[in-house]
Amino acid sequence: MSIRVDVWEGARIALFSLRSNRLRTVLTTVGIGVGVCTLLAIVGIIQGINRSFEDQLSSIGANTLQISKFPWTLNGDWWTYRNRKDLSADLVTPILNASEHVLAAAPLFFERVEGRFLDRKIGSVMLVGTTPDYATVGSFTLERGRFLTHADVDNRAQVAVIGAELVRSLFPGLNPLGQRILLEGKSFRVVGTLESKGTILGENQDLVVMVPFRTFLAQYGKKRSPNIAVAVTSPEHAPAVVDKLTAVLRRERNTPPGLPDDFAINRPDQLANMYAQLTGALYGAATGVGLITLLVGGIGIMNIMLVSVRERTREIGVRRALGARKRTIILQFLMEASCVSALGGTMGTVVGLGLARIVSLITPLAAAVEPLTVVAGVGFAAMVGLLFGIWPAARAANLDPVEALRHE
Fold this sequence. Notes:
Layout: H1 3-20, H2 22-60, E1 64-68, H3 78-82, H4 92-96, E2 102-117, E3 120-130, H5 134-137, E4 142-145, H6 150-154, E5 159-162, H7 164-170, E6 180-183, E7 186-194, E8 199-200, E9 203-204, E10 208-212, H8 213-220, E11 227-232, H9 238-252, E12 264-266, H10 268-311, H11 313-321, H12 326-362, H13 371-397, H14 401-406
Parallel strand pairs: 3-10, 5-7
Antiparallel strand pairs: 1-11, 1-12, 2-3, 2-6, 2-11, 4-7, 5-10, 6-7, 8-9
Helix pairs in contact: 1-12, 2-10, 2-12, 2-13, 10-12, 10-13, 12-13
């Protein structure tokens, strides 16, 4: 008898046995289904969070650098960074001349303010003092009006470009261009509005107001250390640009040879590494819980299959006496175990995807499952059935035909 015939015959007998023991089949299917459901729900949430983080990170721009007094990831004593010399907007020019691969650079001064227009107000607005080049560095797109100009910066003009959230909150149904808003009591004329950018790393990019940096310093205080945002031609050139910027900044800031840098050049991939470090252990533990649940389902399959072998001992003896080979018996029980697992895996996959979707709808957690993950879920469930069905199948195949026939 060929292997193809053995497989076909094993599958037919396995399906007949499963149909004959419906309650046992349902209970076993539920066991493996719970395991797959738990695993896929966890994986779905993890993949959704990862994709959300990648999308937000790409919004920052892989070809963007940010020079600041503090690094994004602090390694060491905070006071070491605190005691560094402040940066200056005057560094923008040498930064632009540092490399041909630097497209633009802009100083960034920050302040949290309250915005007002007539009787409407909105809090926690990020006020940014900057230059026209920030439109290029930050990849901002105008919806109406214009961006800041160099004339605005030089003349310390009281003008502002506002984000989409301020348009919605302060100017519902109105054209904000030409209107005057109050930022901590100081009046600015709106000359432009930005298209919505959404939230990036928990920061609402639409809750922002941009003003000329010289106006900012005059209105909100000059003793500040800016960040300097730098746009690079491509991510491939970023490492070389970082090296050149390091040399330029050390020279401009008179950092003595042998001493560490007294500034930080931050890159988006640093955030990716920090994210991986913070979430790696958490994701591993969550996935481990799902795998343990699936393992419990596999043990349930093995127990049920051992019971099935014991109940069908006489049947096995008859089949062996009529010439059935061990291979045929093994395939029969393996097919039975894998069919139960695949059925449970399919049901668990559907429920798991549904749970992941529900979680994404009622909580801030995103959920996204790749098609390959769905296939892997069902396939992995069937594999669990095969693995945990090996011992019962081998035990059935190794029964002595004579003793099996005597079994009552």
